[in-house]
């Protein structure tokens, strides 16, 4: 024990002799109250200064100070109680028991503070990126990495904190050592039981580094189209087009093929298929498609094209291509192209609408049969 603490303990014992009529518990209570009050006063002064410093800052920094104030207040109180128990004239056995409990709680609070610091770092780092930008690829990349690593770090911090806290209890420490040294059967069973957890944890690290998916990526999973809404430490939430949520384990995106429409960029080329008659004037349809795209705020001004991709025994298949800045916008643009091209063919270009030539030939044959033959 440092000589300063020994000297302080001696001074308190001498002072107690002057008030010999006080019971031991009263002296301990007074010492604890004095040191706890001093710690609380220092904490209050320091955070009063910090509050003034962030008074004119935004709400985020005021929230950071408030969260730190609550956690550090608990830590300072625990340290003050532990110090006061050490220097107070308490019997060795009760003093050791109380200090063991305080050490256990202090380790838990320190882990809580470290986890909170990781959260604050993640929030401060993610504030640098704008997810509302049209091309938010870089923002999605960094935010996805940060969130996955943040959750993995918190799980690791929690496990280490609980382990260190339990190691302060002698009975638990001996039990843990004997359990590890006993037999490998328990370890094998535990390993098999923890396999899904470890599998998803490793998959989370792979996703954070390789990034097959990111926040707000447009993906097709299980034949459903949606966007990645949330990535946790064990699962991914995909928001489907009709607002349903599909929950998938992290390992799914490592082991199962899926489509990511925004892997490199958020821009997409949308496709709208039309089925027209053989006599459809392709030049007019192509010009109308260009007019529709140029007039639409959904088109990004890059790709627009119309091609005949197939011919069946009745119709010609026409593919309309147009680019957009994101997957949802591309979907809306495709719908707009279909609607306006259909209206154009119906109102201004009826010869492009599919027709049944069997019916036309039969009608012409009947018309020819009914007309008078020349003499």
Strand content: 5-15%
Overall tally of domains:
3
Q: How would you classify the helix and strand content by structural class?
A: alpha+beta
Sheet of most strands: 5 strands, antiparallel
Give average pLDDT, whole number.
80
Overall form: elongated
Counting DSSP E segments of at least 2 residues, the number of strands comes to 8
The number of distinct helices, counting runs of at least 4 residues, comes to 12
GO cellular component, one term: membrane
Transmembrane segments: 25-50, 71-90, 102-127, 148-169, 175-194
Protein name: MscS Mechanosensitive ion channel
Keywords: Membrane, Transmembrane, Transmembrane helix
Features:
Alpha-Beta Plaits; alpha+beta; five-stranded antiparallel β-sheet; 8 strands; 12 helices; 3 domains; three-stranded antiparallel β-sheet; SH3 type barrels; 375 residues; single chain
Question: Mind explaining what this structure looks like?
Answer:
The protein has helices at residues 3-18, 24-53, 59-87, 92-126, 137-167, 170-182, 184-193, 195-210, 252-255, 282-295, 327-347, 357-370, and strands at residues 218-221, 224-231, 235-240, 245-249, 259-260, 268-276, 304-311, 316-324. The chain has 375 residues and is α+β, with helices and mostly antiparallel strands. It folds into three domains: 3-128; 147-262, Roll (SH3 type barrels), CATH 2.30.30.60; 268-357, Alpha-Beta Plaits (2-Layer Sandwich). A hairpin with a 4-residue loop joins β3 (235-240) and β4. α2 (24-53) runs antiparallel to α3 (59-87) and α3 packs antiparallel against α4 (92-126). Mean pLDDT is 80; it is low at 179-190. Keywords: Membrane, Transmembrane, Transmembrane helix. It is found in: Membrane. The chain crosses the membrane at residues 25-50, 71-90, 102-127, 148-169, 175-194. Residues 197-263 form the Mechanosensitive ion channel MscS domain.
